[in-house]
Amino acid sequence: MSYKRFTMTVMGIVIVLTLIFTSFIYYIDPMWTFGHANEFNDRQTVINEREQKTSEIYFQPFEYDTLLIGSSRSTYINPHDFVGMDVYNYSVSNMSIREYWSFVEFAKAQHGEEFENIMIGVDFFKSSTQESSAPHSLDNYVEKVTKPLYRWKYLLSYDVFKYALHNFKMSKDNVVIEERIYNRDNVAMAMEIDKETAEVDTIKKIDRFRSTFYGDNYVYYPQYKEIISKVKDSNPNSNLIVFTTPISTALFQALVEEGQLDDYERWLTDLVDVYGGVYNFMYPNSVTNDQSNYFDGHHFYPEIGTLIAHRLSGADEDVPEDFGVYVTRENLEEHLGFVRGLVAEF
């Protein structure tokens, strides 16, 4: 074989392998930049929710009338379970209240106008100075995603190829083998775990909250009201629907035992003062009392997310009567007294 022919053969092999490599990544689309769906990419691992969801919003048509934002707890709410709303769930892991505004502004820019509804999931432990004072923003991700050739360079990434292969295997086997994965409709799924494992994970999670987020580590953030007002002030024509995320009663009891009940009451009061009303799911009730509704006492299963969606959208015939109370200035004191009564039974 001549040198020229050998060189052409090698180049041909390299080109073919590169095409196979890039085509496979494109077909699976683990970074959510192309939007197509097929039987081998309907299980998507979480690589970086901020980047993946921002990519999806930027590169795909974005014609929703309702935006949902929140932390990892809110990711487990199926956006298609809301009745009478076309919802995009832009919730991501460990979202800080300081990020909310930048998420809404980016989504609004892609939408082209204010949303009809903005739903905001809030977590009590994120109201502390420790969790709220540091500046956080989506801006770095927006800058990254909007760069020229952004989505094309991932077609040559070996790391992305490995994620694509993982997604392919999960999709082929039709399994959920991680704490959270998504399908191509932005619906999060959770891995079901056995009761014994859930009990162990819950104990560990409660211990972590006691040692990291509650007790002496918790100081209510003085600027909390100011920060949460920003989304409201920037979206005067949107209907804001605010809700608290339900933690297990065992974790709520730890909150009380660590001395945060007064802070919890201040938090609810501030939410009501800013937004006029809030759907509160975070108190002992028939859903939060049932540990099987959680896989770690902190994150609920998607079935509970469905109940939240139905309550928030008014299609709540299947929602337990004691799960979710709309708290306003008129019934705030009554509701706080009701929660105190439940706490007294611990």
Write the layout of secondary structure elements.
Blueprint: H1 3-28, E1 44-45, H2 49-59, E2 66-69, H3 72-75, E3 87-89, H4 100-111, E4 117-122, H5 129-132, H6 139-145, H7 150-153, H8 158-173, E5 181-182, E6 188-189, H9 195-213, H10 224-234, E7 239-244, H11 249-257, H12 261-275, E8 277-280, H13 302-312, E9 325-328, H14 332-343
Describe the structure.
The chain is an alpha/beta fold and 346 residues long. It has one domain: Rossmann fold. It has 14 helices and nine strands. α1 crosses α8, α2 crosses α6 and α10 (224-234) runs parallel beside α12 (261-275). The protein is globular and about 90 Å long. The termini are far apart.
Helix proportion: 40-55%
In the predicted model, the low-confidence regions spanning at least 5 consecutive residues are none
Question: In DSSP terms, counting alpha (H) and pi (I) runs of 4 or more, how many helices?
Answer: 14
Q: Order of strands across the widest beta sheet?
A: 3-2-4-7
Relevant terms:
four-stranded parallel beta sheet, 9 strands, three-stranded antiparallel beta sheet, 346 residues, Rossmann fold, alpha/beta, 47% helix
Task: Summarize this entry quickly.
Keywords: Membrane, Transmembrane, Transmembrane helix. The chain has 346 residues and is an alpha/beta fold. The protein has helices at 3-28, 49-59, 72-75, 100-111, 129-132, 139-145, 150-153, 158-173, 195-213, 224-234, 249-257, 261-275, 302-312, 332-343, and strands at residues 44-45, 66-69, 87-89, 117-122, 181-182, 188-189, 239-244, 277-280, 325-328.
